[in-house]
Structure formats: structure tokens, C-alpha cells
């Protein structure tokens, strides 16, 4: 059967953002301050708002005890798969800006946080930069 032009255009439009965003990355999210689930949702909303990052998939939300500095509230954690045209360091800058907009306050290493976003995979690259540690 022939595909109607409108249907073909709609199908092509559905795939256009993925084609435009040449890179696939996985980002870990965590929160143990305030409304933890709302913080995660707000971070995801902000991350996607200008179209430079497209959400491709999400994990479930998991609650886990804090690591390293254990005298703090438990974390809600998730991982998302994204596509983006941003290179690793500009993506990191974007994640830090999202953290700030959600209300993250700098405390101490491994301390409590309103939201934390970390790049865990970016294509198949291994990037050595102190900012990514």
C-alpha cells in the first residue's frame, strides 16, 4: 500500500530530532534534598527545554542510601538516555546549569544535594578531564 504524504511527513518528523542529535549519552540523576522526585522531574524538564537535548529513555527511580558520607538522607536515583549535538564538556556545562536552576547549593564533596547530574557514558568516548571526575 502507498503511504500518504501526510503520514510520511509525520513519520520523518518523528525521527528528525534523533538524526540532528548525533551523539548518544547516558546521564545519572540523583537527589537527596527537598522533594527528591520533583527535583529529578524538574531537572529533566529543564534539560530538554531548548531542544538541544532529547530524552530517548529513562530508568525507574531507585532509592539508595548515600555513599561515602553516609550521615545524610537517602537518594532517589535514575539514569536517562539522551541524544544531543553537544560535545562532552558543553554537555557537562549544560548539566551544571540545570543543577543550578533546580536549586543545587554547593556544600562539601559527597554531601547532600538538591540534584546531581553526571555523564556516565557519551558515545564510546573516554574523556580525561578533571571536570569529569
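Sequence proposed for the structure above (133 residues):
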Amino acid at each position: 500500500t502507498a503511504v500518504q504524504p501526510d503520514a510520511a511527513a509525520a513519520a520523518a518528523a518523528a525521527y528528525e530530532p534523533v538524526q540532528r542529535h548525533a551523539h548518544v549519552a547516558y546521564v545519572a540523576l540523583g537527589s537527596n534534598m527537598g522533594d527528591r522526585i520533583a527535583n529529578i522531574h524538574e531537572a529533566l524538564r529543564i534539560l530538554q527545554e531548548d531542544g538541544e537535548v532529547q530524552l530517548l529513555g529513562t530508568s525507574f527511580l531507585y532509592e539508595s542510601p548515600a555513599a561515602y558520607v553516609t550521615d545524610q538522607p537517602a537518594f532517589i536515583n535514575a539514569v536517562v538516555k539522551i541524544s544531543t549535538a553537544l560535545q562532552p564538556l558543553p554537555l557537562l556545562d549544560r548539566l551544571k546549569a540545570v543543577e543550578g536552576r533546580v536549586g543545587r547549593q554547593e556544600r562539601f564533596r559527597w554531601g547532600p544535594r538538591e540534584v546531581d547530574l553526571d555523564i556516565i557514558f557519551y558515545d564510546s568516548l573516554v574523556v580525561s578531564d578533571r571536570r569529569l571526575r
